[in-house]
Write a structure and sequence with these properties.
The strands form two sheets. Strands 2, 4, 5, 6, 9, 10 and 11 form a seven-stranded mixed β-sheet that branches. This protein has a four-stranded antiparallel β-sheet with strand order 1-3-8-7, with no helix packed on it. It has 114 residues and is mainly beta. The protein contains no helices and eleven strands.
């Protein structure tokens, strides 16, 4: 069983920054593919960014150049640094861990005001 706990969401003005964290209770965190997804009201959940066990990253086109995903395997934590936030980034952000199976966190709300 994997537990993921997100933190760092909140309300920010357009152009501002937030840093999301996801702490994972898992024995071999370094082997997991970690990702951040988001879901706005009425929309499908979409991939924002992912990072492999080897540190390779992938981003949605809408966040490239503004968001950075990183991981600290010693702390079993994955981060999402979000800069130059836009109102359209408003959503619930979910942490995801994949290794054979897939696990989700409870989500953290990010609201960007114009």
């Amino acid at each position: 069983q994997v537990q993921l706990v997100e933190s760092g969401g909140g309300l920010v003005q357009a152009g501002g920054s937030l840093r999301l964290s996801c702490a994972a209770s898992v024995s071999i965190f370094s082997t997991y593919l970690m990702g951040w997804y988001r879901q706005a009201p009425g929309d499908q959940r979409e991939l924002v960014a992912s990072i492999t066990s080897g540190g390779n990253t992938n981003y949605a086109d809408s966040v490239k150049g503004r968001f950075t995903i990183s991981r600290d395997n010693a702390k079993n934590t994955v981060y999402l640094q979000m800069n130059s936030l836009k109102p359209e980034d408003t959503a619930v952000y979910y942490c995801n861990a994949k290794y054979t199976f897939s696990w989700w966190g409870q989500g953290t709300q990010v609201t960007v005001s114009s």
